Protein: Spy/CpxP family protein refolding chaperone
Amino acid sequence: MKRQLKQLALFTCITASAVLGSQNAFAGHGPVQGEGGKGCVEQQKHGAHRDRLRKMAAELGLSDQQKNEAQAIFAAGREKNAPLSASLRHERHELQTLVRSGRADEPAIRAQAAKVAALQADCAVQRGAQARQFVALLTPEQAAKFQTLREARHDGRKGPGRDR
Structure:
C-alpha cells in the first residue's frame, strides 16, 4: 500500500511539474502560490535550469530574440525528451530493484544495465543536439565565451582526486 501511495505521489508530482513547467518555463515565475514555497523535486529542478539559463544569458549578453529562441529550444527539448527521461528513470529503478533483491543473477543485472546504458546514450545524443542548436544561435564571440564558461564549470566539478 505504501509503495502504491509513493508511486501515486511521484506520478502526481511529475504530471504537475510537466504542466506547471511548461507554463512557467523561463518566464521568471517562482513556485505556484499556495504550495508552501516549494514544489516537488521535478519542479525544483526546472527552477534550477531556468536560473542557470538566466545567468548564462546575462553572462553571454544574449539579445531578447536569442533568449526567446533559447527558451524555445530548451522547452521543445524537455517536451521531446520527457518520454525518454521517464523510461530512463523506470529502467534505473528496475536495475536498483534487481541489484537490491539479492536474488538476481549476473546475466539479468547485465541485461538491465545494458537497457539503462542504451537510454543514457539516447539522452546524451539528445543533449548534444540541443547544445548544437543553442550554440548555432550564438554569435562567434558568444560561442567562444560559452565554451570558456562550460570548461570552467567542468573544471570546477573535478575537484581534488576526481577525474571526470
Notes: The two ends are 41 Å apart (CA to CA). The helical segments are 2-24, 41-60, 64-101, 106-136, 140-158. The first helix runs from residue 2 to 24. The CA atoms of residues 135 and 143 lie 6 Å apart.
